[in-house]
Amino acid sequence: MDIKNILVAGEYEELFQKQLTNEESQHFRFIPVDEITLEDLSWAEAYIGSKPCPGFNPSNLKWVHSFNAGVNNFLEIDGWKENTLLTRTFCSFGERISEYCLSYVLRDLQFHKYFKEKQSQKEWAPKTPKMVKDLTIVIFGSGEIGQEVAKTFDQFGAKVYGVSQSGKQKDFFKEVTKTTSSGPLLTLADWIISTLPLTKETNKLFDNELFSNFNGAAFINVGRGATVDEKALIEGLNAGKIRYAVLDVLTTEPLPDDSTLWLRDDIIITPHISAVTDLNEAISYFFDTLRKIEKNEKLLNQVDFSKGY
């Protein structure tokens, strides 16, 4: 694919210039996302950024590249042509998310909260920590990020199972089950982790019916907030189906001040930081993708429009 005019939506020029070489034949425009004009969009053959600009129309573009792993904000816009290429960024997202999940599992197994409370009470109260190897962990999503999370817990000896739409077997999972038949598996889980993207199929997938299969498991969501029905989550916590929840993504971000999620002792909230994009790394990944496009090489980060990821 021959691409000459590339519009970069955001104030990234200085970082891009550090990685540009004399080999590139493209022309770049670096414009803050809210200042992009219709003329800029008409000029561009490729659009690069974290989100669509006002008036974004993919119909005239050959290629759109997102600096994020999730691309639902682009897919929500009409006008995509069959031959328009949409790619996303992977970078070290899987490693970052794996470490995030591992940190909260270890926090629980090592009784950090319990020992901190005993310290404040000046009480010497031994309690034997548990080990990861004794856990059963179910991961929703068996793509690149899900596999990286599975790899991390597999290396510690945990029993790791996957859940996906297809049920296709993947590395680092003892078994991958279809979403529609995951109920019995969830009853066995100590931890259930969602790495799911937001699609029509995953929107509010975690509802009352799905949570009813939890048997006291802890829940981590590092996928997309809207995959969880937050009312159903609260009901699951109240009923003891869910032991507690770690939420890095919420349906509405930032989370409104009046949300009841803030004040619950059985919910930990972090502000969407489990896989923060390192811009230098993301820009390097963009140039790798550009070179592959120029050489007509296979792209591992190309979005399948029928799947939404």
From TrEMBL:
A GO term, aspect molecular function: oxidoreductase activity
Entries under InterPro entries matching the protein: D-isomer_DH_NAD-bd, NAD(P)-bd_dom_sf
Keyword Nucleotide-binding: no
Cited CDD domains: 2-Hacid_dh_1
One Pfam family from the record: 2-Hacid_dh_C
Keyword Ribonucleoprotein: no
Keywords carried by this UniProt record: NAD, Oxidoreductase
PANTHER family in the cross-refs: 2-HACID_DH_C DOMAIN-CONTAINING PROTEIN, D-ISOMER SPECIFIC 2-HYDROXYACID DEHYDROGENASE NAD-BINDING DOMAIN-CONTAINING PROTEIN
Organism domain of life: Bacteria
Protein name, as recorded: Phosphoglycerate dehydrogenase
Domain D-isomer specific 2-hydroxyacid dehydrogenase NAD-binding residue range list: 106-274
Gene3D superfamilies documented for this protein: NAD(P)-binding Rossmann-like Domain (3.40.50.720)
